[in-house]
What does this fold into?
Amino acid sequence: MSGEFLLPIRVYIEDTDAGGIVYYVNYLKYFERARTEFMRSLGYEKAAFLGGDGLFVVTDVALSYRQSARLDDQLQVSAVVHSVAAASITFGQCVYRDGCCLAEGTVTIALIAADSGRPKRLPRTLRMTLISESNTEQGSH
It folds into this structure.
C-alpha cells in the first residue's frame, strides 16, 4: 500500500507505569511522533508550523487498545493517510510489536491560521502530495 510509514520506537521506563506497562496516553505520543516523521519524510521539516502562518492541531482522535506494550519492547508505529479535505488530514495509525497490532486508531489534524485560530486551506502542494500518498477516496471529510 502506498503511503504506509513505519517508525521504530523503543519503550523506555519513562513510558511505563509502576508495573512496566506503557501508560495509555503514551500511545498518542507515539502516534504524534510517527505523523511528524511521516511529514518530515515528505519534505516538511517543521510540519507542525507550515511557513509560520499556519499550524496543525488535532481535532479528533479515536483509539482502541488491544494489548499492552511493555518496558524495553521494540515497537513500530504506522501512519497512513486515510483522507485529505480542504483544511484537514485524517490518518490511520497503529502501534505494532512483532507484527501484532497493540493499539490502533484514527487522528484528524486541521490546519489553522496561527494568528486567528481559524481553519486554513492546506497548501496545494501539500494537499497533492498527501493525496498521492493516500490509500482511500479523497474529500470525504
